[in-house]
TrEMBL record:
GO molecular function annotation: oxidoreductase activity
Superkingdom: Bacteria
Residue ranges of domain DSBA-like thioredoxin in the record: 11-204
CDD domains per UniProt: DsbA_FrnE (cd03024)
Listed Pfam families: DSBA (PF01323)
InterPro entries tied to this protein: DSBA-like_thioredoxin_dom (IPR001853), Thioredoxin-like_sf (IPR036249)
Protein name listed in UniProt: DsbA family oxidoreductase
Amino acid sequence: MEPLEMRITHDFICPWCWIGEAKLDEAIREEGVKVRYVFVPYELNPDMPTEGLDRKAYRTAKFGSWARSQAMDSHVVDEGRPHGLAFDYERVKRTPNTLAAHRLVWFAQNEGRDARALVDAIFRAYFAEGRDIGDTGVLTDIAIAAGLDGARVRELFASADGRAEVRALEAASGLEGVNAVPFFKIGAEAVSGAQPVIVFRRALRAATRSDMEAHALSD
């Protein structure tokens, strides 16, 4: 049996994407399924300035008050904790533009790499360590730590490589009806949002059954 494809549409400033991916990972471990990850970009703020914005000012304007933003952050912290995710919003000073981060993941996948560890490292750098993941120097350091070649990554960011490709992937997702993240395509099964682990387990079982039936018919 070939590994089951996990097609994950996400953005790096979406805490529910990180939580959802952690829940999916738990479900995969519990079901003992062999999988192949494919990450699909989705920019929640495609018009964000390249240098990002001060998070407090941005979130206050977006949600009406800093107090409301902090209450939402507190809820995220509580939701992430049982899944081993440490959100530290005190350290997060900027809301970044995520195009460069998506270009990096596109590059890694285009090189034939499993980008799961890289994706998790980018989420962790932003939400747990407060690093500016819109900064290509920060992203280069993350990429090197994840095993990518630093010189190749610097070449990527010195060029326009990946820009058009990321935007094309985003447009394709829109045409397929994806208008919110996280969105998971587990084989032929679709799961929207950071659902409970049991929902992902059920989707994995259904996708595995469908995959086995398809292989049986082709034999």
